[in-house]
Amino acid sequence: MKEGFFKKLLDNASDLIWAVDMEGRFIYINDNIKEWGYDKEELIGQPLLSILNAQRIGKRETRRSIMGIHQTYEMEIVDKKGTAHKVVVKSSPLEEDGNIVGVMGIIRDITELERLERKLKDEERLASLGRLATGIAHEIRNPLSSVKMNLSILKKRLSPKGVDVEHFEIAQEEVFHLEKIVSELLDYAKPIKLDLQICDLTQLMDVAISAVAAPCAERGITIRTDYDGKGHMALLDKTKITQALINILLNSVQASPENSEIFVGAETVKFPSSDRARVVIRDQGYGIPEDNLKYIFDPFFTTRKDGTGLGLSIVRNIVDNHEGSITIESEKGKGATVAIELPAR
Ligand SMILES: Nc1ncnc2c1ncn2[C@@H]1O[C@H](COP(=O)(O)OP(=O)(O)O)[C@@H](O)[C@H]1O
Ligand SMILES: [Mg+2]
Questions:
Q1: How far lies 304's CA from each of 116, 140, 311, 336, in Å?
Q2: Mind listing the domains of the chain with CATH numbers?
Q3: pLDDT higher than threshold 70 for residue 68
């Protein structure tokens, strides 16, 4: 076979194939290097270490690979733009006439693979968590309503006095909290069937705002709206989206200090493919520490004493089903900003 054939074979490989001399300088590198933003020419003669993220690899590992022992390891490579990629490196001695003259190897980018694996694992984890939780919720529902009924019968019949009133009330409040968890849980796990229609997102926002009027008034919180002077039409399920907006607003109200303001904005954003109707809810509350941000959509993640951790999981479900998107930006102590985008009409 012609030499050109092997060159093509190497250059078209989806992995980075390389060889270095005894000093660890590139003597060969295939075309794949372009995907890392480098030119072949600029790297030939340069040390392999110039593209490896030296921070993440121990000195020992570097030396071993230069000495030319067969080995496989994971490390990070920084592309020319400075983005780090997780890679698997396989290297082996490069021999010529029985002498080791360098090291050759391949480098495979596994960043995307790892991301997919993680996502799949997350989804599996959430799905089985959801199934388990719904099973339990169904089991709890009936006995719970029986407890509730019997408590109120007993309270009536015994007409308790003094601290006994308090004991009854605590028991009833706890039952109420459990009922809330059960109903939110069933809500969360119910397969969503949307009843889509074109309507004004800001109208639903107004409904959601009036739904939280009482807790706002209680703590002197004002809600300021700016809908860009008009309605913003989107294809949506009214009940579901209103519920999502209420969940988000309630979180903001709960996080807000007394006499603070919550801003609610709406606009239609133009995109080349399709326009999106966007609402933004911004509060001046205690915010979300960075470590928590990645968990806030997980069912049962809550930092509130009487929270269920299902509010945002339900919102996420609803928005996903609308082919919409949700983002939450926040910093500890600096309030939170939630944005939802839905297909505009
Ligand atoms: N606007 C907000 N400000 C501060 N923290 C928030 C906000 N929204 C959500 N969070 C955090 O996310 C967690 C999960 O929210 P959610 O799913 O609605 O459950 P819950 O309200 O029952 O705790 C909350 O416990 C809180 O820690
Ligand atoms: Mg909530």
A1: 32, 22, 12, 16
A2: 3-109 (3.30.450.20), 114-189 (1.10.287.130), 197-343 (3.30.565.10)
A3: no
